[in-house]
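User: Predict the structure for this protein chain, please.
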Amino acid sequence: MGCIQSRLQGRCKPKSFRDSVVVLEVNSSIDPQPTSIDESSGVVLRYRTPHFRAFARVLVPPVASSETWTVGWIQACNHMEFYNTYGNKGMSSWELPDLRDGKIEAISDSDGVNYPWYGNTTETCTVVGPTKKDSRFSVSMNDNFYPSVTWGVPVSDSNAPQLTSIRRDQSFVTWLVAINRATAETLVLQTVRWRMRLHIQVSPEKPLGQRATLREPVAQEQPRVLGRNEPISHHAMVKPNANDAQVLMWRPKAGDAVVVIPPKY
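Assistant: Here is the predicted structure, written as structure tokens:
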């Protein structure tokens, strides 16, 4: 009654954005089909993992003040193992040095343009106040891996197939976030954790098209939409992103490691 009475007297302040934004629905999944393998090239093996997907419907009641808020998905990688073994020669590995060495707890997985957002199409929506009615909208994102792995040792000039195994294990935290464009106030609305694993066994002596076999997993572990939100990592919000920071190493069975592809950043 107090608020009704105050409103009649013109003194009822509207709720802040923080108090009024509502997540109507949120869901996340990884597509059920297994990782597919492409041996159409004599130079590289390609594989495509199933898609991770996140979707949310959000309601923002009227915004009285001249505020601008962007709501959307921000993602960070907090663990990466990506090893390609070449028999007794050694292995190549894509690595994130600061994450590998424990200097940071996560690294941005932004598209590299729209920091800190994962993307800027379906991934975000911006509400510009003042508004006179509810704003209802959905934001969605998807992610998967589609790399190329050389059949031959990456520091060799030969394409002779020597690849024997691919192992990958990556983990991510994905946040649904609202950010005030003027003040940078940041509200975590939802937190999702997910992981993508795979093991491909390769028989390099076999003909092209018959070499690689997916060993595990046939179906990925499904993402977890957390009941209690986790604070967003500082490193999820700033440069560099994972694609620009990663480095390809060659680690021979004997001898020193070699940088094959340095980081872009």
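Residues 71 and 230 are 17 Å apart (CA to CA).
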